[in-house]
Description:
4 strands
Amino acid sequence: MTDDDVGxxxxxxxxxxxxxxxxxxxxxxxxxLGQPKVCALITAGLETPSDFDGIVYIKMDDSGLWQKELKxxxxxxxxxxxxxxxPPKTRSRPD
Length: 95
């Protein structure tokens, strides 16, 4: 989920949040797969819906640690996953 929208309680400051259709789709996956097999990827600072406090949220970061956390979650939930080879590291050349 990304912070593509803003919202909040009437009379209080607005906060970044996911679009409402994304929240609806999250509910669909909860109903279809069950709570143990649902994990939401979120951007830092995103308001998470209180109705879904029981699911796992993984914050996406620039360092890529979220990918390892997601992989652990997929393995724990016995969900199929595909591992892609990492691109080779590039070396910067001195000018």
